[in-house]
Amino acid sequence: MSAVSLYKQKISSALNCQEDEVFLYWKGRVALYTVLKALGVTKGDEVLLQAFTCVVVPNAIIYTGATPIYVDVKTETFNMGLEGVKTRVSDKTKVVVIQNTFGLSTEVEEIVNYCKTKEIICIEDCTHGFGGMYNEKSNGSIADFSFYSTQWNKPFSTGVGGVLRVNNRDYIESIKQVDKQAVQPSIKETLVLNALITARKYLLNDTTYWVLIKLYRRLTALNLVVGSSSPEEIEAPKLPEGFLKKSSAVQCKTGVKALVKLPEIIELRKRTAKVFDVFLKENNKCFVSSELHKNHSFLIYPILVKDREVFMKRAEDMGLPLGDWFISPIHPVKEHFEMWQLNTDDFPNANYLSKHILNIPLDKSNSEKYLFFLKENKDQLI
């Protein structure tokens, strides 16, 4: 059995779906683009998405010629809700993208059921939530389609990578037709990716984190390594050459191994999250409500801080890795939002969160160090 076939088999088993409903891509955003193309989304159509996301999501929409229509999020869930969707739906709305931010799914069934009454297709953005559950169903099983990411620091990693899940089998053939147009990764891309995966495995730890992450981002900006987002994707929403790209054997082999450890890692994340819950709640700081836990796979733990730069510098001085998802309503873009047809002033919740949010990794066994750090810097927590 080929690496690709074995990986598909393992993915479909983990998601409890059929193998022919799974398609593999170079990155998660490619899976989203594939769906939009298969649906015939084009100029004049509108696609709803939330205004607290990664820029690659509106990029995929704009690449088709369609218009991204943003919806503000709720500060307690980091996701948009049904009422927000209702205010933005129009006669031009063809698709709604439902995001499960940081692994948290909320109001998915409500949004999907509403969209069915409007004959609108729904796509779940589960780039943070592979392996998690929503109302006792696997993340990504409710909408017509869902897509997942296996990039660095996602539920499990293949360096970069994406998975498409087709729940509405009426569109299987349309997906296959677009999938046939996808190109194979180059030898250079696969060699560089394999080198990065190896380096991450043996070199990345708490001590080296800040040095290596800065180096990685610098090399990505220079287009010298395979990055989460290429410079072209951040500079403007223009379709990069060779964007529609399949997964490589390197990613598939890495994914098969990583999937074995995923259930254990998810349980560790959930246990660690409860530790931070208790501390933040006791100190009247923002925390993830226990009511949300059953639908939260906790990719990371989100915290809100008064001054992000100060807080991150203190963490760096203590040798503690922190994440910065999302530093803007369309992370990591910081300016010229009009190119993505976004006016940040229209989305106060997304704007507020993106100015104050940071993320604590949960897949480590040193939660006591982070807890000590939070106690020492309680004055900076919101």
Entry keywords:
382 residues, globular, alpha/beta, 7-stranded mixed sheet, Aspartate Aminotransferase, domain 1, two-stranded parallel sheet
Strand percentage: 5-15%
CATH class of the domain at 254-380: Alpha Beta
Distance between the termini: 52 Å
Structural class: alpha/beta
- Return the CATH topology of the domain at 254-380: Aspartate Aminotransferase, domain 1
Widest beta sheet: strand line-up: 1-10-9-6-5-2-4
Note the total helix count.
13
Low-confidence stretches: none
Q: Main beta sheet: strand number and arrangement?
A: 7 strands, mixed
Q: Give the overall average pLDDT.
A: 94
* CA-based gyration radius: 20 Å
Q: In the CATH classification, which architecture of the domain at 254-380 applies?
A: Alpha-Beta Complex
Give the full name of the CATH homologous superfamily of the domain at 254-380.
Aspartate Aminotransferase, domain 1
The tally of beta strands, per DSSP, is 13
Order of secondary-structure elements: HEHEEHEHEHEEEEEHHHHHEHEHEH
User: Level of helix content?
Assistant: 40-55%
Based on Cα principal axes, name the global outline: globular
Helix and strand topology:
Blueprint: H1 3-15, E1 22-25, H2 28-38, E2 46-50, E3 53-54, H3 56-63, E4 67-71, H4 82-88, E5 93-99, H5 108-117, E6 121-125, E7 133-134, E8 137-138, E9 145-149, E10 162-166, H6 172-179, H7 187-203, H8 209-221, H9 231-235, H10 249-282, E11 300-304, H11 308-317, E12 330-331, H12 348-356, E13 357-361, H13 367-376
Parallel strand pairs: 2-4, 2-5, 3-12, 5-6, 6-9
Antiparallel strand pairs: 1-10, 7-8, 9-10, 11-13
Helix pairs in contact: 1-10, 2-3, 2-6
